[in-house]
Predict the 3D structure of the following.
Amino acid sequence: MTHQMVPNESDILERQKEKFRTLMERVMRDNAFYRAKYEPLGFSVRRPPRLDELPALPFTLKSELVDDQQRHPPFGRDLTFPLSRYTRIHQTSGTTGRPLRWLDTAESWQWWLDCWREIYRAAGVHPDDRIFVAFSFGPFIGFWTAFEAGQRLGAMVMPGGGLSSRQRLETLLENEATVLVCTPTYALRLAEVARESGIDLAGSTIRITIHAGEPGASVPNVKSRIEAVWGARCVDHAGATEVGAWGYSCGERDHMHINEAEFIAEVIDPETQALVEPDAEGVQRGELVLTNLGRVGSPVIRYRTGDLVELTRRPCPCGRTTAVLRGGVLGRIDHMFIIRGINVFPSALENLIRAFPDIEEFEVSVEHRRAMAELVIRIEVNGQRPADVAAALEQHVHERLNLRPVVRVVDRGSLPRYELKARRFKFSQEQR
Ligand SMILES: [Zn+2]
């Protein structure tokens, strides 16, 4: 069904060329941030960069955008139009530094909604669905776009802001919601509250859960756990405030597609910054670099996402020919930590921990004892034999990572719970 709607590879390249040309003509005329980056390279309004020159352009870093806003407050210079044209303002959650403000015009907001429509379409959401968005609708862009795009799709959308977890559960059950949109962590949190309240979620009307904000929904054991407790199909999507909603699940278990009609994807070695060539299996492993094509008012061009990915252009069984990320976003490059010489990604460790359904919540830290670094995992266990679960987890992590953790059972309810991005991995910067 979706096959006819999906353009083939050469159509996509043509579309990218055309959109990139339009974007660059505007940017070189009116966008002070990118003019300052590209004019020293000889580009101008008369001679904007072409798509085949993209690899010669410098990267855009988040730190540059933050610095630019500090130097040119409050909105910085990545603006292609006069301020009166902008109709939305959002800001990043600021978990890793100063929040970044981001402005959208009516046109670029519409572009966001069109990108979300692809996410819904690929997830199988219909106009007769009822979408519950378990999100607090603050200045973080998060699911604002999901909410409005659901409406444009013709579905019924329910806001979940200003409600406790218990009230959210009651609202979605009483209104017979069929689609849940939230972070993967929060889907599990709602399930915990449901169990404590004696509510059977697997028997609810929810049939699809759509997640973002964390890699969770592409972490196999997190995904299967969400699917089990909700009795629903769990799909992932990826996006960022400054980039847009760029990736979506197609239904093939661990595949995430890049919406290449609207984004150009490159993969680089994060150390050397060189483009990564496909290996013998056709996979490019490295940091994802994205250019968005439809957010002309505040674009990012060759933006280093900090996301570690494995990108392949092998055809996906779903019939789409756009690039696929195997396993979704594998982790944040700056979240990787090294302990006793072993590289550990939080998402890989989370996958090992989530293999134990009795572990309700967890927290990971690196602690030093007699000058030795130790990986400490604190767990809350739901069940009769917490010590057995702790011993089994210790062995499982040891077998998979070749690193023996210290597993400590803590009291139920003593670890923090999260609605937005979880912060279960507590490391100082030097430990990364
Ligand atoms: Zn696919």
In short: Confidence is low (pLDDT under 50) at residues 1-5.
